[in-house]
Amino acid sequence: MAEVRNPRGVSRQVLFVTLWLTLLVLAIKVWAGWATRSLSLLAEALHTVIDSFSTVLSLVAVAAPHRISGREVWGHGQLETTLALLLSAVLGFACFSLLGLSVQQLGATQALPALLPVKMSLPLIGLLTIVFLASLGLAYFQKRLAKTLESTALRVNANHVLQDAWLTLVVLIGLIGIWRGYRWLDPLMAITMVLTAVVSCWRVFNWQLPMMIRQTAIAPEAISQLVRQVQGVTTCYQIQSRGIVGRQVLIEMRLVLHPEFIGATQWIMEQIEATIREHYGPVHVLMKIDDDRDELHPSDHKLRSQNPSRELDWN
Asked: How high does pLDDT run on average in the chain?
């Protein structure tokens, strides 16, 4: 496949389209669940809500202006924090409500007339089948594109969409069983979907969201101590690091070199990166070399490793 000139732009466009398609799928599931009185379909829609949140996180990450081009080290601010809190509130209310209704319906199995009847029809099953196939196709398209663009944002989002597609298939099979008279399947599947939604939400908060938090991954003092051990380094300052230690960390710093070692700048840079990697695992280091006589001279130049093997991808 031909090389893409603007992978970030392509990723952003794909995620934007994915977001709108996910919201459309969510609207269809909520409408279908309300029209059929199916608790399991409404519970499965919670996964689509989580997918929408994940897509927004990926979209904000790809569009982040401070992100190094082609590297999946992100940051986020008040928008994502507010969305996370809003998602927690909505999911908490919806999960408790659906669990309560499902337990009540399961307790009423000895008196079937007390159950809220699920109104299934063949056209509705056909519509949900189309939704499943569309979600499955979108997920595999994103996976293929993520591999081509080397985009973790697309890969993470594709995994969420794929998981939601398979859960839609499970619910679809259960609804067919309900249509044939096994009405106890609806509350049972609803409880299962609620529990899996909680697990899925926890994974987003515990894995994807921390990947985007612009926080200090490694103490500046620890990095400074390692860097000053490299021969030729006079001092280092303005040290910033973010990411997850052991997975990938982006480190930025300013250096002042001894005048006698100015000609060995590239060698010093490689030694610094190797030393940090030895202690903290995969890292991507950006260094700005300052003149010893004027540390803030406008002619400062940025350097980074020219060895591709040292720059490990998130994939």
From this structure: 78
Residue tagged 């994974």 (tokens): 203
Whether the full predicted model's pTM is greater than 0.70, yes or no, is no
Task: Write the CB contacts of 240 (distance below 8 Å, at least 6 apart in sequence).
Answer: 216, 220, 251, 252, 253
Cβ atoms 289, 300 nearer than 8 A? yes
| Structural domains of the chain, ranges and CATH numbers in brackets | 7-212 (no CATH), 220-310 (3.30.70.1350)
Q: Are 120 and 179 in contact (CB under 8 A)?
A: yes
pLDDT 10s digits, 276-297: 999 888 888 888 888 654 433 3
Q: Per-residue DSSP letters for the chain?
A: -PPPS-HHHHHHHHHHHHHHHHHHHHHHHHHHHHHHT-HHHHHHHHHHHHHHHHHHHHHHHHH-TTSPTT-------HHHHHHHHHHHHHHHHHHHHHHHHHHHHHHTTTSGGGS------HHHHHHHHHHHHHHHHHHHHHHHHHHHHT-HHHHHHHHHHHHHHHHHHHHHHHHHHHHTT-TTHHHHHHHHHHHHHHHHHHHIIIIIHHHH----SS-HHHHHHHHTTSTTEEEEEEEEEEEETTTEEEEEEEEEE-GGGGGGHHHHHHHHHHHHHHHHSSEEEEEEEEBTTBTT-TT-EEEE---GGGS----
Structural contact between residues 180 and 38, judged by C-beta atoms closer than 8 angstroms: no
- Mean pLDDT score, 95-114: 73
Residue 169's pLDDT band (cuts 50, 70, 90): very high
Is a pLDDT exceeding 80 seen at residue 308? no
Given this model, what pLDDT does residue 265 score? 87
